[in-house]
UniProtKB/TrEMBL annotation:
Residues 63-209, 244-357 form the DUF3048 domain. Residues 1-21 form the signal peptide. Keywords: Signal. Residues 26-54 have a biased composition (Basic and acidic residues). Residues 26-64 are annotated as: Disordered. Gene3D superfamilies: YerB-like. This is DUF3048 family protein. InterPro entries: DUF3048_C, DUF3048_N, YerB-like_sf. It comes from the Bacteria.
Amino acid sequence: MKRLKRAGVVLLVMLMIFSMAGCKKKTEAPKEETKKEKTEESKKTEPVETKEPEEAPANQNLLTGLGDLTDGAIGKRPVAVMVNNVQDALPQYGTGKADIIYEIPVEGDVTRLMAVYGDYTTVPKICAIRSCRYYFPAFSETYDAFYVNWGIDDSIADYLEALNLDQYDGINNAGGLFGRDQDRLNKGYSLEHTGYFDGTRFAEVVQSEGRRTDLADDKKGTAFNFNGVNEQLKPEGSDCKTVSIDFGAASATLTYDEVSKTYLKQINGNPQMDESTQTQLAFTNVFVLETDISVRDDIGHKQLNWNGGNNYTGYYVSNGAVQKIHWYKDANNERSDLHLVDMNGNEIKVNRGKSYIAVNYPGQSQFQ
C-alpha cells in the first residue's frame, strides 16, 4: 500500500511538472507573437525618406531648361533669326549660341535655318541673314518670339501682316541693326550671303522703341516638358548614335559625342561650324518631325503642313537613343504650343539643353 501510495505521489508530482511546463509555453508564445507584431508595426510607421524634386533655377532659360539667363532676360521674349544655309553662304557665325535651331526645306530642297535665342540681351552678331518663308513664323510664334529676317516671299505679305509679328527686316534695315559683312565681300561672297544682324544691340533698340519685351501670359511655360535639373535620361527606344536626314538638295548628319553627351552636326558631309567661335554646332536633343511638303507655285515655294497632327510621325533623339513619337500644333493656331507625345498620346519628357528640330518629308531619315 505504501508503495502504491508513494507511486501515486510521484505520478502526481510528474503531472504537476508537465502541467507547469505546458503553461509556461502557452504564456510565452503570445509574448513572441507580440514582439513580432511590434516589429512589423514599427516597419509600417517608420518614416520613408523622400527626395524633394529640385526646383528649376530662377534664371531658367525656357528654351533649354538651363539656368543661364541674365537678370534682364528673365520673363522676357526670345528672338528668332532666319539664317542662310546654302553651301555658298557657309560658314555662318552666331549660330552656335542659339538655343533651338529649326532646319526646313525651301525652294529647290535646299534648307534654311531659324535660330532661336532665349536671352534677348545676349544675342550675338549673326550672318548670313536670309528671307522669310511663311512656315517659319508659324513655329517662332510658338515661343512668342521677335522675328528677324532679310526680305520675304511677297506672296505671303498679307499673311505676315495678319500675324502681327514683332518683325525686324533687313530689307529696310529695321532698327539700324543690319549691314553687309565687308570681310565677306572682300573674300568674294555673293551679296545675298553677306547680310548680318547685329544682335548685340538688339535689347537696346527694342527698349528704345518701346516694344513689348515681357512674355505673354500664355507663353511663360517651358518650350518642352523637361526632365529633372540633374537628370540626363535616355528616350524610351533603341540605341542611336547617328541621325542622317536627307532634305533633297541638302543633308544633315548628327553624330553622338559620348564625352559631351551632345549630337554634333554636319551639313552635306562636313562639320557645320560657327565661324566666330570655331565650334561645331552641338545639341543635347534632336527632333525629326515628318510632315506634308509640296511645291505651291512656279518659283518653287513650298506648301508645308506646320500643324502636324495626332498621327504625324516624329522622332526624339538624345543621350544615345531614339524614341518614335507623334507631334502636332493646334490647327490653324500659330501661337499654340508644339506638342510631342508618345504612342499613347502622353507628353514626352526631354533632357535639358539645346535642341535641333528638322521638319522634313516622311521617310527621309535614318537612325543608327
